[in-house]
Amino acid sequence: MKQAVVQPLEVGLKGKIRVPGDKSISHRAVMFGAIADGTTTVEGFLPGEDCLSTISCFRKLGVVIEQDGERVTIEGKGWDGLVEPSDILDVGNSGTTTRLMLGILATRPFHSVVIGDDSIAKRPMGRVTDPLREMGSIIDGRDHGNFTPLSIRGGSTKGISFQSKVASAQVKSAILLAGLQSEGVTSVTEPALSRDHTERMLEAYGVEVKRDGLSVSVEGGQSLKAQHIIVPGDISSAAFFLVAGAIVPNSKLTLQGVGINPTRSGIIDVLEKMGASIEIENKKMVGGEPIADLTISTSNLKGIEIGGDLIPRLIDEIPVIAVLATQAEGKTVIFDAEELKVKETNRIDTVVTQLEKLGATITATDDGMIIEGKTTLNGASVSSFGDHRIGMAMAIAGLIAKGKMEIERSEAIAVSYPDFFEHIEALTK
Ligand code: S3P
């Protein structure tokens, strides 16, 4: 286990960086390539540990995949190209790998066993295993299939109309993927719109997807055609530098080629509402996803309320938004965000306890947190608890905290942003 030490910056953050490829889109590019007919090529792939777990699982399912940094080639042989694995499928720390892969395995006529790390073992899987069982696949596991290890035997499945209790793209995607090889129509309705990368990318792979407000449906019996996928920069990784640019004195930095899909761009809305100076330039479409260059400068910020439909649009950014809120005048209230409790850690607990150590005025609530600003943060010894986004949020706080910040278990950052510390350094030169 590693410890990172972050010292307060004496200079502002200046310059341009290209953040790594989008994690959600990288997973999907590989998985959809694996079930497509033909050779799929991916550019801008995120070579973080989570996406490498997806590659490793699909190799065990018989798919030939070559990966060299950000370039990936997948030799898809269609749905029937997947074969019964002779080894356990290890998803590491990745919830997206677990849930989307279960949706694919649900219709495959063979047996697989899925395990992951200690964090995955605590994350609820009933939200996908229950509907997949209702469709007809045989799934068992710890606590009746709610937790890993899970075993799955897929087979002939029937379409369902599923009303999801949570706005979750992982749940929506798993059911739609199973629906592609099930009898009849499968539809998913969400309480609020979650990220729509699956819908966009399935269309790019030649699948017909029907959308109607909060509902999405697919007809069974559809196959995918191999594609060339260009992955946009990850707005969830960009978020750390957007916050750093806004709170570190004398900063002005540009993040190039960042995905600004409206189902993901809540962080931009929050920065604008708080009064940050942010410019969005060079907007264009890449492979069905909008991208842009984002420039942020040091700003005077004010506290705001963050809840409702905005939450699924920024759920992964809340740890660093909490850091941002400590530097805003007045109260920031984050509500309707119970889903934070079932991420890589319980992020209400981990954010609140670690920011308290730095001297922030922050209170946990049942569905979020309340932060009073503006406060001076002090360096302390904190932990990521194995959660990449907690580790990075603490490092950004460390850039403005007084004194030295020690971050235990900083190796977790490689899950989504292997070059994170190098990028901080590049912006201080
Ligand atoms: C993801 C969906 C979100 C998000 C996760 C990635 C995806 O999870 O938090 O980091 O790629 O579909 P939920 O579906 O659980 O909300």
From TrEMBL:
Tell me the ranges covered by the Enolpyruvate transferase domain, including all copies.
Answer: 13-423
* Protein name, per record: 3-phosphoshikimate 1-carboxyvinyltransferase
Positions annotated as active site in the UniProt record: D316 (proton acceptor)
Keyword Cytoplasm belongs to the record: yes
Q: What is its EC number?
A: 2.5.1.19
Query: Quick one: which residues bind 3-phosphoshikimate?
Result: K23, S24, R28, S168, Q170, D316, K343
Q: Which residues bind phosphoenolpyruvate?
A: K23, G95, R123, Q170, R347, R389
Mention one GO molecular function: 3-phosphoshikimate 1-carboxyvinyltransferase activity
GO cellular component annotations, sorted alphabetically? cytoplasm
